[in-house]
Specification:
The protein has 8 helices and 14 strands. By secondary structure, the protein is an alpha+beta fold. A 6-stranded mixed beta sheet has the order 2-1-6-5-4-3. A 6-stranded antiparallel beta sheet has the order 7-8-9-10-13-14, sandwiched between helices. The protein has a two-stranded antiparallel sheet with strand order 11-12. A hairpin with a 2-residue loop joins β8 and β9. It starts with a helix and ends with a helix. The N terminus is likely disordered.
Length: 332
Amino acid sequence: MKKRFAVAAVGSVLMTALLAGCAGTASESNSEESMFEQVSGSASEQEATSEQETTSEQSSENQDNSKNEEQKPQDDTASSGYDGFKAGTAKAKYTGAGDRTAYLETSLCLEKGKSYTMDEIISALEGATDYKKSSEPTYTMIDCGSDGVQELLVQTSFDPEFTLYMIIKDINGELTICFDQDAWSRSDVQVETDGTVMSSGSGGANVHVWDQAFVDADGEYHFYYGCEETLTLYDSYYLYDKADYKEMSVDGLDVDHIGIRDYYFEPNYEDRTHYYEYFMLDDNYNDVTTDADYDDSNPVKARFKEYGVETYSAAQIKEMLDSRAAEIGYKK
């Protein structure tokens, strides 16, 4: 289990090499313009009308009232919207949906159904962990689902090496946290402008893990898939069935020329059904698998079968991924 927990600590992560061509990280897109872009105006601005017949006395009285209103503390309604959240006057509701944090665990310090300002979220995390905020939050407008309606991407760094990402959406006038995930030195998170979330990292010198998810136009979080890839094998290989596992011996196999990919469609490891694909490597770790390697006579396939586990070809895995994408509405 030690190996699995080490990988689980990395979180579900996405190998950058398999995602070539994707857009840059959210941090790279934090331009000055998008960071402070005006998203929503106040109700008074939307309702203001031009009254040419208003007397100068009435105009002066309205100006005085306006000044008095500005001096009053803003309530949640008046300070709602993304600008209010940036200013620290509006709150966003935590639901636990889309929570993928591993070290900056929001589920340990935030209450489902309760709303928080950004300062309150930071204070809660500092109180529940040993990590302290190391920089001010940055804000970027994105468009989940590319429907023309903007959402707010928030990034906050904590010492010594952690960054919290959150996507906040105005749902029926209420700010809601749709997604939150942390990254650190061995785990990278990329949030694209269309709400696609990609993660990648390492569980060891020969183990790479990655996953992909997205937040749709309605603010719903969808986990697409994850994969743990092992290049070359050592001693044994752990086969998982949700939280249970068994140790498969690799004795007698050409371990230096075998790779295994473990695919799953559930974000939490205790819920996962695992689909294993093996592949053959040359001395430079290139995939040299042929159709003949999927025959029952292949020693790797036979070893999996000996332990009661089915394996899948690359073509079968592709069919699974395509089916999954159609099921959740993911546009590749």
